Each structure stands twice: as C-alpha cells, then as structure tokens.
Amino acid sequence: MIRHVFQAAKREWEWILLDKKYIVLVLLGPICFALCIDAMYSPKKVLGLPVVFVDQDHSNLSRTMTRAVLANETFRLGGYVNSTADFPRLVAEDRARVCIVFPYGMERDLKAGRGGRVEVLLDQSNYLAARVAMSSATSIFAPFSVGANARIIEAMDGVKQSEALHRSMPIDVGTRILFNPAFTSNYLNFVAIGTAYIALQLASLVIAIRSGSSEFGERSFQPLSSLRETPFAFTAGKVLAYLAPLLPAFLFVVIMPHLFFGAPLVRTGLSFWLVLVWFPAALVAFAYGLSTVTRDPVLASEVCTVLTLPNFLLSGYTWPTIAFPKLLLAFKYALPMSSVAFILKKITLMGGTLADCGNQIWSLIAWTMIAIITAWVGTKRIIKHSDEAKEANA
Description:
Elements: H1 2-16, H2 20-41, E1 49-55, H3 60-71, E2 75-80, H4 87-92, E3 98-102, H5 106-111, E4 119-122, H6 127-157, H7 161-168, H8 187-207, H9 231-260, H10 270-294, H11 297-313, H12 326-334, H13 336-350, H14 359-393
Helix pairs in contact: 1-9, 2-8, 2-9, 6-7, 8-9, 8-10, 8-11, 8-13, 9-10, 9-14, 10-11, 10-13, 10-14, 13-14
C-alpha cells in the first residue's frame, strides 16, 4: 500500500513540475503576504501619533504636562498651534492625530480649588489610533489630577501635604491580563497571524485546484496503470504530493513572527505539529475532490475563493466576535480557517493542547470528513473515466 501511495505521489509530482511557475507562485504568495503583515505589525503597538498643543495657560504646569506627553512613546510632537480651529486642517494634511488644549487659567484655578480641565481632541477617522491615544493621554494626566486634588484639599482643610495626598488618592483598580500579549495591544499576534492563515488556506486550496480536472483531458499521457486498483493509495498520493511543498511554507509562515519579529511562542508540542499537518491535508483533499467533481479548475477556484473570503469578514478583526449575532457566530466557527486560527493561537500563545480547543476541533473534524468524502468521490470518477477511455481506445 505504501509503495502505491508514493507511486501516486511521484506521478503527481511529475505533473506539477511541468509548470514550475505555478507552484512557485502559489507557495511564495502566502510567504510574501505573511512577511508584509508581520513587518507591518512588528512594532506590536501604535507608536508615534503626532500631537499638537494649544497652550493657552503658558504656566509651569502646562509645560510639565507637555513634557510628560512627549515622553510617552505613543506620541511625538506635531507642533504648537494657537487655536483648535487649526486641528482639522492638520489632520487633513496628516500632520496631527491628537490635539491637547491647556485652557487659560488652568494652573491658577487648580491652586484656588476651582478644579481644572484638559481638552483632548482626537481624529476619530481611525478608531484604533484614537482609542490608543485616549487611553495613553488618560494615563499620563492621572498623576497630575491626583496632585492637583491634593493641593486643593491641603488649601481648603489646612491639613499636611502627606495627609492631603493620601485623602486625594482615587480608588485603585487592579487589572490582570491573561495570556499577555495575545489579547492586549500586541497586534502582531492578533491580526498578523490570523490574516496569514487566510493566505495559507487559499494557497492550500489553489495549489491542488487542477489536480482532478486535468485527469479528464490534459493528462492522458499519464496512465493510471495499477493505481486504479488501489483508490485509497491514489487519493493519499494525490494529497501527499501537494502536502510536501505546503508543509514547509506553513511552518515558515507560522513561526516567522516569532523568529524575526519577537512575537512570543509558548510551546510547539505534539498538538501544534498535528494541526500543522492536519489542516493543509484536509484542504488539499477537499480542493482535489472539488476539482474532480466540477472538472473545471476555474469554477473550482471560484468556489474556493468564496469559501476563503468570509474568513476575514468574520474573523473578529473589524468587529468583536462576542458581539456577533448567534446565527452569524455559528457560521464563523463553521469556517475552517477561523477554527484553526483559534486552535493554533491557543497552542502557541496560551500553552494549551487540542484538549483545550473544544468546538474548534469538531469544526476541523467536520471539514476533514467533507474533504475525505469529496476526494473519494473524485478518485472514483477519475478511475471510472480512465476505464471508459481505455475501453473506447480498445
């Protein structure tokens, strides 16, 4: 049986090597795509947002706050302006994303116990950048708020500075981040890895999209010979032929963020290697069977594209998965890439195993069964067509 499997794989490799440009394009595509995505998200968080200041107070406090803002890596100096009316123009010219206003009399009012306010204007056209800017600005100004409250209490109640500072402290809120940095501001782990899997899925489908349809015309020079007697070996050989070049590409794309861009990698145990082989094997088997059933590589590729596109739309990158309607959420988890992305993230970033992957495993099992059935039907059709062609020639 093993000999027949490798015989079928060798037969397929001979066909693949007739058009080397095709397989090189299919394999280099996801690698180049993943490299670009990884490089784009390699800073791991939003840095260097240009901020402009409207300092109407011209006080020691406003200058101290300005230095504190510029000391934070989230911001870089975009300039100083006289009025907030200049901010929309600077945003349109890509010279500013944030505008911080220190109003006239801010320091004086704080010392007098009348309170104070700092205005933060945000370019909300990019929600992600605006949210990061707001969070950073809030964390920067919080200590100044505590100090100002202390001075107010000290002035009004006549207590010592240490007692005033103690009384002005806000309630401390403890935050614990699990699996850091998988679900924090490290977009390299969240967006880059997920989108790279989409390219890998499409490559796995496209690489085998001609393997079945070509048996009905283009490959008459490659007789099936004894392989028609072992349909399982023929199917396995088909899958093996395309899986061999795919696995290095899969491994490189998955490991690349950790090797070159500093993304954390908790573990790569047996569960990791099993999924790394299991996922592309199922996709190749499905693509081969679909190609055979349709007998049209163009139609089969369109079906694979339709299957791949919703993965990004339903990935949770543009809208939180937890907010999806239940029906749409079920459809999301039914897609192969979505489940595998969650599985590999749980294994590589959280240190889990397949036992921790719950419903995602059942989704992968279901797609594997569909792929096996489709590939088996395709093999039977190829053998039947070969026998009919042999009888016609006789």
